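Quick one, tokens below. Sequence please?
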């Protein structure tokens, strides 16, 4: 009977130690802050729902958006005649090995400006400019730069462009 008590006591002690370690490890992880991210693979011109997705909006703000494997750098870049590259229908600009900006189309006549503005309201609007022929461009502030949304004269989203934080042009 005495041996059973010792085994039971040891088992309880070990379980408390393991539980204590797990809790300590879990509490350490809860203090880490993870910035939102969003990945899109494929032709953005054939899709539009991503533009209204709250995770997409947050990823734009935090600079953690990956479109077709490309992410715009969060660091200041010296722009010296960037190379223009294209993956599917995503166009991006590369300078000194870093993607400095990107633009991609959105499915035609599928996202209204009012819906886009509503879903992106958590980000600060820097400007809402009316262009020729009734087009407009709305620019939003992000943590590391800006992004712009272009709308046609019927107020539908055409294109999104992610702009770099700081650009220094060299001659």
């Amino acid at each position: 009977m005495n041996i059973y008590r010792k085994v039971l006591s040891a088992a309880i002690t070990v379980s408390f130690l393991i539980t204590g370690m797990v809790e300590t490890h879990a509490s350490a992880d809860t203090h880490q802050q993870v910035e939102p991210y969003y990945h899109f693979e494929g032709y953005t011109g054939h899709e539009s729902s991503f533009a209204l997705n709250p995770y997409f909006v947050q990823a734009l703000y935090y600079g953690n958006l990956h479109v077709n494997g490309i992410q715009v750098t969060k660091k200041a870049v010296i722009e010296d005649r960037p190379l223009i590259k294209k993956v599917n229908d995503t166009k991006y600009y590369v300078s000194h090995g870093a993607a400095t900006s990107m633009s991609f189309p959105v499915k035609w006549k599928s996202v209204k400006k009012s819906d886009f503005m509503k879903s992106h309201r958590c980000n600060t609007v820097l400007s809402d400019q009316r262009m020729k022929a009734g087009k407009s461009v709305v620019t939003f502030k992000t943590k590391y730069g800006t992004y712009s949304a272009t709308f046609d004269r019927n107020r539908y989203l055409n294109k999104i462009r992610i702009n770099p934080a700081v650009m220094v042009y060299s001659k």
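The mean pLDDT is 82. The chain has two domains: 1-32, 38-169.
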